[in-house]
Amino acid sequence: MSDDQSAASAAMAGIGELLSCIGPTCGDTVDWNAAEKVYRTSFPVDYRAFVAAFGSGSIEEMVGILIPAVSSDEQQGNTVSRLSEVALADFSVNRWSSADRGRHRLEDLLIWGETAAADTFCWITSDPDPDRWPVAVYSRGDLEWSVYPCGMVEFLLKLLRNEWPKWPISDDSLQDVEDPRFLHDKDEAAGRESGDDPWE
Q: Does position 188 have pLDDT exceeding 70, yes or no?
């Protein structure tokens, strides 16, 4: 096992102990071979493990996690995606923190999550090995991208443990959550449809 895969396994074990799934639906089964054909790339080991354990949904209604499309038709939905043509053409979107300025291209970003405060979570996919993809976060508060040299699960684990030296997202409400919860999109939708707040 590579160092990257070892770090991913350790991070997944940590988030599995910290994050609880509060609905009946926990995890999604994804045809990864089909997804790889749609996106023309494979996906990181830690992300696959997170999707299997938790799936698409949100952490405390703040951090949303996306899963990949397995057909071109599904790409029109709320799935993993590249930045839109509009975003790529918008000069104001191509703003990076001083440490990362000029080092990365918007075209290499692949969105895997978002926040209720309109922040965007991506991988920088320039490395041919997905397990070496760092995380890039566009903070609506700072109006710029910052890069975190770790995988998606390690990023989330440090976020939930409040271990980043500078808080990476625009809303700080997660800083006070001791026992974070995950709710699958299916369960949240079912709760809303029945008139119940699944977060209560």
A: yes
What pLDDT is attached to residue 98? 87
pLDDT digits (tens, 9 = 90+) for 83-134: 999 999 998 899 999 888 889 999 999 999 999 999 999 999 999 999 999 9
The rounded distance, in Å, linking the Cα atoms of 141 and 15 is 26
**Cα(178)–Cα(44) distance, rounded to whole angstroms?**
27
Point out which residues pair with 146 in neighbouring strands: 137
Instruction: Determine the 3-state secondary structure of 107 from DSSP.
Output: helix
Q: What is the spatial distance between Cα 98 and Cα 80, in angstroms, rounded to a whole number?
A: 27
CA proximity to 166, closest of 94, 73, 110, 99: 99
In 3D space, the residue among 180, 183, 179, 155 whose CA is nearest the CA of residue 167 turns out to be: 155
Calculate the CA 51 to chain-centre distance: 10
**Side-chain-side CA neighbours of residue 57 (13 Å):** 30
